[in-house]
Amino acid sequence: MTELVSSFPHLNEPAPAFSAKTTHGDRSLADYKGKWLILFSHPADFTPVCTTEFIGFAKAADKFKSMNCELLGLSIDSLFSHLAWTRNIQEKFGVKIPFPIIEDIKMEVAHAYGMVHPGAADTQAVRATFFIDPKGVLRAMVYYPMSNGRSIDEFVRLLQAMQTSDKNSVATPEGWTPGCDVIVPPPKTSDAADKRPSEGYKTTDWYYSTKSL
After folding, report:
1. Which domain holds residue 176?
2. Which residues are catalytic?
3. Rounded to two decimals, what is the model's pTM?
4. How far apart (Å, rounded) are the C-alpha atoms in residues 115 and 121?
């Protein structure tokens, strides 16, 4: 039997293609062309930390959808386990899970995305989160330990920041949220650096200028 070896995708390169069965039917990466996609893995169904995360993603699903972003979960569990777990969450916590969850028993998607870390668990996907843009390019990756849940609010903020950068050709500072000033790209020549103070930005020094949108 051939052993699957985890690869690790790279930022700003095409995300690994996949086709998989989910709780909402078959899904492939191509289905999400033209939209942002957040693909996230969890170690196992019916576990407490994962349950809180899924509730958090579910409550934020409409916010993500308003930003042209779909959600897609994954764990190395069966489709029947996923269905039973999501029904349990609805029954016990009063939250309906509105997004699909990939069945990845053979660990094919998990290995393609580097979700399996032997130092954490040989047969479970760690808490990995991947932001894929409308062109299918991997734009951000976030990994969390098994013991600690992710911040869904931070994922909303990060998506807002990336979309703002794409739209306006700017960067965003630490903790940026919509309405805050953005960072203007620094000048790339000596002449441009000399001109920067007169360009109307909020300039602290030649390499650091901000503006409002």
Report:
1. 169-211
2. 50
3. 0.91
4. 10
Tokens 């407490």 belong to residue: 48
Are 158 and 60 within 8 A, CB to CB? Answer: no
In a shared domain, residues 141 and 174: no
37 and 126 part of one domain:
yes
**Helix ranges, the chain (H):** 48-66, 79-93, 108-112, 152-168, 190-195
**C-alpha neighbours within 13 Å on the C-beta side of residue 76:** 17
> Helix or strand or coil: residue 173?
coil
- Are 142 and 178 in the same domain? no
Q: pLDDT tens digits for 26-59?
A: 999 999 999 999 999 998 999 999 999 999 999 9
Q: Is the dihedral of CA 23, 28, 32, 38 positive or negative?
A: positive
| Contact by Cβ (8 Å): 86, 46 | no
Number of domain units in the chain: 2
Single-letter code of the amino acid located at 84: A
Which are the contacts of 78, defined by CB distance < 8 A and separation ≥ 6? 103, 105
